[in-house]
Amino acid sequence: MSAKAIREYDAKLLVAHFLGRAPQFGTACPARPEFKAPEVKVAQISWDPVSNTITPDSSLPSWVFSEKLVVKPDQLIKRRGKAGLLGLNKTWAEAKAWIEERAGKPVNVEGVLGTLNTFIVEPFAPHPSDTEYYVCINSVREGDMILFTHEGGVDIGDVDAKAAKITVPVDGDLPDRAQLKDGLLAAVPTHRQDALLANYGEYSGAPTKGQTFEYAKTILDLMTRGEPHPEGKVLIIGGGIANFTNVAATFGGIIDALKNYKEGLQRHKVKIFVRRGGPNYQEGLKKMRLIGETIGIEIQVFGPDTHISSIVPMALGITKPMSNGVDSAPNGISAAHKAPNGTSVTSPPSSATFAATVVPESREEHGVVSFAQGAPAQRPWFRPFDETTRGLVYGLQPRAIQGMLDFDFACGRKIPSVAAMIYPFGGHHVQKFYWGTKETLLPVYATIAEAVKKHPEADTLVNFSSSRSVYQSTLDALEIPQIKSIALIAEGVPERHAREILHLAEKKKVIIIGPATVGGIKPGCFRIGNTGGMMDNIIASKLYRPGSVAYVSKSGGMSNELNNILSLTTNGTYEGIAIGGDRYPGTTFIDHMLRYEADPNCKMLVLLGEVGGVEEYRVIEAVKSGQIKKPIVAWAIGTCAKMFTTEVQFGHAGSMANSDLETADAKNKAMRAAGFVVPDTFEDLPAALKKVYTGLVQDGTIKPSPERDPPNIPVDYKWAQELGMVRKPAAFISTISDERGAELLYAGMSITDVFKEDIGVGGVISLLWFKRRLPAYACKFLEMCLQLTADHGPAVSGAMTTVITTRAGKDLVSSLVAGLLTIGDRFGGALDGAAREFSRAKDTGLTPREFVDSMRRANKLIPGIGHKIKSKANPDMRVELVKDFAKKNFPSVEMLDYALAVEDVTSSKKDTLILNVDGCIAVCFCDLLRNSGAFSREEADEYMQIGTLNALFVLGRSIGFIGHHIDQKRLKQGLYRAEQSDIFIEMGNTGISDRVVVRPS
């Protein structure tokens, strides 16, 4: 990952904060006990372009106004003193005027034009010129290099040439005070040497459719500003061959942005050139071409059969557009490119031996295939991977592991390359994966030690640990002699950790690939993690069988491009390693190039370097000394860096030139002089590869053999479904809510609008239960029902059951469910029955008297009629509230009026046979369903039949049950046991004479 510089202000705050808190390393040169970190005095002044003002005085520390000051810009500008951007010995008033004079003004510093907007202010410390010193600590691969010179200041000159240096090895001891004095301070007067001893350090991803849309929108907005250029404009959308990104899906965001800027693109006469490869790229390019026709913009699209950067000269009119081949591009997983010039591929025999032949066991149960355990393999030093390699994967990475197993199956391996997984947080179980069309189980262990003990044949570790935990897990692996190679996938590994790992690995003779790498691939043998992308790219690039060309690069993203180029111009890849883009990769170019040189099956080498670092020069020296004799085609990426006036970094932490030697141009020139085949441009790389390969075929170094048909690999169902290749009926249907979009929807209404319109709980019920917005009075009625049914004291059966369950020590859910299970015909479940019976009677034309008589003849109680305590003379206020609300707000209360007429009949017999709260809510709900205008008669009848009315009581009473549970927990009530007097036990009629005794025969 890239490294970013920080401002001097932030750097000094960090040093001041951590200097006194840093732990002591070793005993050779400890900090003196009396050492006290000085108080930090540094202030930042910023210019606001909107108000054209600088940081107000009220925001500055008090010392600024009382001390003499140094003031300078803080924008990563070097040599500020020589550029006249340094103010010395100034009061705050003078410093402020100095800043205001320069803030917001364009300044040219060494050919770079920019605006000054951030400044730093510090106390001025006057001193003689011979007392200013320079100290710096640079991190290098071997350790930390301390540079010191007694000639500091603005005229310091070339530090590298004049400074004294001491290197502190990664795994070595810190120098003591005597070594520091002798090695660094020889030119400093003796009485000042102790004062100079100090510590200072300088420490130098798949987008969603929405993210792609926002990014494209920004680019298009910039392109369509201002007046149109007479020659129009060109937009280049270039990308490598993706590993797993659905190209069509991400292009969807770009397409939406193009639609938004249709008029601007037309006005500016924008032409668009697109090159992309990877999963579903054909569909993505097709969509891009069609959107061009739709919005009237010229869009030319190219797939992976066009070189990654060829569209640049095409777009600029330097070369003519090539056939893009999108229509004829491989559509499925079984397609592959043709070999160059009709040649076939050589499949070199493997020289690896296996102590025991490893074949699948014959037993297969229920479509699950299992494999016998092999013995440790013996391989030559230059071939860490072959068709018998077995590895461990650290971390739960099912997608990567499935990709490795699919690759194994495509290569014709007899046993999967993954032996087991290691997951410290949940080991000792199995995970299921596909082996072709069948399934297999892989064990998961908690520790590396346990995994290697159970799988002695596994000698490779693919470590997917995060940057936080990769250090310790790798140290654990390095302690196990069985592990011979480790791939570190994580980005962001601290450089100090990376250096310690690589030095320990050198001692242990373990190959480290990474960190910050996609890994590597040995076609026909072994794949590290996600290298090579999805299976369609594996097949298209012929990675299922070995070729003759081995490559090493820093960039994992360029691996797919190299695999693709080699499949088009040669007989394919023999092995490919991406060492990683961090400053300190575990192995470097030379480590792998020497392996390839020693491997008789590898006939041709490719080196893809980049700007920054000097590792390419080690390969150059090996070629000059005769260590490497095989032909090398090479290129260093980053030749465009010279076009920028400022330092530029190309993504990786190490891809930035710190000297002329580290520029891409210097490396390409040096490699060409050493006898490498170096093309003039990156676009010429395929032609150079083809030329060298053809020469090797003609001189007999490479002997072509028949190309075998690519294997048929089953497509993953989920991916096939995403591509629209298969369909499957949904197991469930839901029509009330949707969480898949930008925000949650309730029956089509966004959660934002739910709160914006303040529809309340009643409104939410109307959306989720009835899938429509009900009138305000209806929502209020629903809320009223919940309030009225929330509780009716602790004595009712549901509340009592909840209380007893709570006192038995059960949790909230158990106690709530216990109470809810008591709801039925006898308790709380009368709403549906009342609605059903009253509506049936009224709809069939029965008078209230006839309805009562018919129920009596059927020996049925009338649901919703009757109360244990309340009567006509002592009415239930809950019923009165519901009646009053309905009569005041409902369009019609004909069902309520009918129920009240029935009440007159029943109460004449007994005063407590009144319309209770269940019955009142039920008949009012019938009036609401039938007369609100929101439901058809069929819908109203259906809602009464499917339990909607009882749902109101269940939801409302849940509030009370939860309250009783919380109340009992708060009161810390113990286990309940009924009083003996509350239970009548009668055993008189169950004597021995009444029992049937079954005697044994």
From TrEMBL:
| Residue ranges constituting the CoA-binding domain according to the UniProt record | 387-492
| InterPro entries named among the record's database cross-references | ATP_grasp_subdomain_1, Cit_synth/succinyl-CoA_lig_AS, Citrate_synth-like_lrg_a-sub, Citrate_synth-like_sm_a-sub, Citrate_synth_N, Citrate_synthase, Citrate_synthase_sf, Citrt_syn/SCS-alpha_CS
According to its UniProt record, the EC number is: 2.3.3.8
Q: Which UniProt keywords apply?
A: ATP-binding, Cytoplasm, Lipid biosynthesis, Lipid metabolism, Magnesium, Metal-binding, Nucleotide-binding, Phosphoprotein, Transferase
Instruction: Name the catalysed reactions.
Output: oxaloacetate + acetyl-CoA + ADP + phosphate = citrate + ATP + CoA
- Principal subcellular localisation of the protein: cytoplasm
Subunit structure, as described in the record: Composed of two subunits.
Q: What PANTHER family is this protein classified in?
A: ATP-CITRATE SYNTHASE
Q: What is this protein called?
A: ATP citrate synthase
- Origin organism is Puccinia striiformis f. sp. tritici PST-78
